[in-house]
What does this fold into?
Amino acid sequence: MKRALVLGVLVTVGAVTLRIAGAQTAPQAPLPAIQKVKDNLYVIMGSDATDRSKFTGGNVGVFVTDAGVVLVDTKLANYGQGILDQVKTVTDKPVVTIINTHTHGDHTGSNDFFPAAVDIVAHENTKTNMAKMDAFKGDKARFLPKRTYSDRLTLGAGKDRIDLYHFGAGHTSGDTFVVYTALRTLQTGDMFAWYDAPFLDPANGGSGVAFPNTLAKAIAGIKDIDTVIPGHSPVAQPAQLQEFQRYNAALVAEVRGAVQAGKTVEEATTAATAMTAKFAGYKTDRVKAAVQVIFDELKKQ
Ligand SMILES: [Zn+2]
It folds into this structure.
């Protein structure tokens, strides 16, 4: 009893110390150097998502247009200066627009570093989801999206054109697919984050059952792409996105089969893990959590 009390006090003190340090000092993990994707498009990678000590958040797209720099996502909190330092190595232009692919703190965390005049754009459901986060309450509400859309939005023109698409629920309820049209490049956010089961966030309107259908709509609806920037992995090809869609369709089919056969979620997880391992290069670390979400969704239907 006494020991538990002492431990509780220590943990609390530790948490307070951590919070103060987080607010005042730069984060521990350095950002990887900005890398060129094509012409005026760059990416600041998110480091290793499996090693939390090196994790800096999602990939950031850096698009240098005539009007200024467009950032797609802003990593975890406290990475604004690091992002800006990397941007300055490729252009003197200011950041004028931020696009948030979805609500999560590893994609919206450093919005608040940038001047309040910066245009912030996201899907309408993402704005709703972000408004529920402590990071965007009170004074910080000015770093919420200023411009939203429902199905599709075009920003800029010619070589600077960006098309934003939303195809329905998946990772969250407000995922945006960002297309750098002239460069034939698609940035997916976490609708294609890594080679493993997706992280599904039903609390923010995500759906494991809808996920493969939403991805199929994106693949069918976005033409003329030859390069893909995933949410948390190195630059990829359309074939890898297509394989990820087929994987997610197989994952839902596996769980649906288990539910229909009256199997438990543990049995469904075992079967889905074996299925996942058949996809070359795929990890199985996130299968259990994804199966649980899909299983629960199917049980409710
Ligand atoms: Zn996410």
About this structure: The mean pLDDT is 91. The first strand starts at residue 35 and ends at 38. The chain has one domain: 27-239. The chain has eight helices and twelve strands.
